[in-house]
Amino acid sequence: MKAKNYPLYKIDQVDNLKMLISMVSDKFGDSSAFIFEKNGAVVSISYRQLKRDIDLFGSVLCDLGVQNEAVSVIGENSYEWILSYFAVTNSGNVIVPLDRELPVADVRNLIDYSNAKVLIYSDAYSDVAHYLQESGARIQHYINMKTIPVLIQNKNALISQGECKLLDFEVDSNKMAALLYTSGTTGAAKGVMLSHFGLIHDAIAATQYVGIFGNNMLVLPLHHSFGFTAGVCAMLLTGSEIAINSSLRNISKDMQKFKPYNMFLVPLFVETFYQKIWDTAKKNKKEGLLKSLIKLSNFLLKIKIDVRRILFKSVLASFGGNLNLIVAGGAPLDIKYVRGFRDIGINVLNGYGITECSPVVSVNRNKYYRDGSIGLVLPVCEVKIANPDENKHGEIYVKGNIVMLGYYQNDKATKESFEGEWFKTGDIGYFDKDDFLYIVGRKKNLIVLKSGKNVYPEELELALLKQIEYIKEVVVYAMDDTIVAEIFLDVVNYPNCSSQLSGDILSFNQAQPMYKRICKPLIRETEFPKTTTKKIKRRYETEGNI
To answer: Which CATH class is domain 450-542?
Structure first.
């Protein structure tokens, strides 16, 4: 339903992460904050216990003399990972979340670069801790997450005698809370400094725009800014129960177990889930039936009869049966997935963010959206389109307290990224008449032909994926002043598609202006290499030029 814009959802205001934990503990008390499986049993942690555990572990850090220090954390998603994040930030330290998929040498480089004195790691990454010790890293304290319950228990005994250094500690909301790296490569790594105020106010603004009803399942890696700000902080603000997915291999199993109503995902997950629906329908010889039911359902919706949860009950059951909202961000999302999920009763809201902005900048709303857009700008920041061209396309600039404090020990990069108070995102976009924001590509990916014409490769890539269904992945770039599309085909579901490609590209080109036409399609034998956040690496990234 596309409704007129409506008032913001009501969310309590706090100014830092410590205030967040105190507020939700008082407000939601014994309600379940986190639920997860551990040693074959399902464990539930209340909001009150969450605060207690954070205070205790934070006090352990204080006892170690860890104050105003950088503390790195690495490991799979877990309650202990989240506990570590809040214990570090709420005790006056800076959390440095590390990408667990990075090579160990890169982990060492980032730890050295951040001057971290403490490493908190999961047992699965004991080898990383061992490597750091053996290679002479400047880490003073190594804390295995499996020891945290014992540390907390011992500390609790001391606190019961009246000793607690953390409870009275006051956090400076404007100081750095988190140091997040934008790249794992030694030369190009930039540490994004995010403040308490920016992180929590970004989460507040996001939940003012997007209504959350029911529990959420946490899937995105916690070192990813979207995963923590939206998947944890925003959900805590709403009093939601957060089910922690044990691993990507267990997503389907965990969905059946925890039956989530909401999920925050990157587009690759959305596309994979959607493909699974149709693969299953085809396998069970029910593809035609599913298409017929969608037609019937859409007809009934026109006369305001919504029976999607009934008609598609068996499809929805594969997601646990309750899923009705997916918020997607991190990369462009083809509108066919947005509309395809809406057809069966799951609302997909696309948004836009960048690590340097804590990260959410804009998002579509539950009942006010534009398919193909990245939503409305959050009330906590301002956005302008800088140096627009004749199509009103220009670089997206952002201003507000959610914007980073700067790049860590990199004044040159910080200065280059700002124009006055405005942060230059490097993304090209535009606004429509109703203030919905659209993104057309990255400034660094822009193709400028000798004719002076500008081509945004992402725009052509989305159009190709939409029009030619057997294209699984595509990257568009220029070669000798002509447009090339490098394509990975879905030969599993479309065995003869390679012979069709030339003809379908010809048809595609007929709808494009001359300068945007694909002159040369190239077929890849393998998928494109991807970043750890599951984005396709473009040619210059693959070649090591970042």
So the answer is: alpha beta
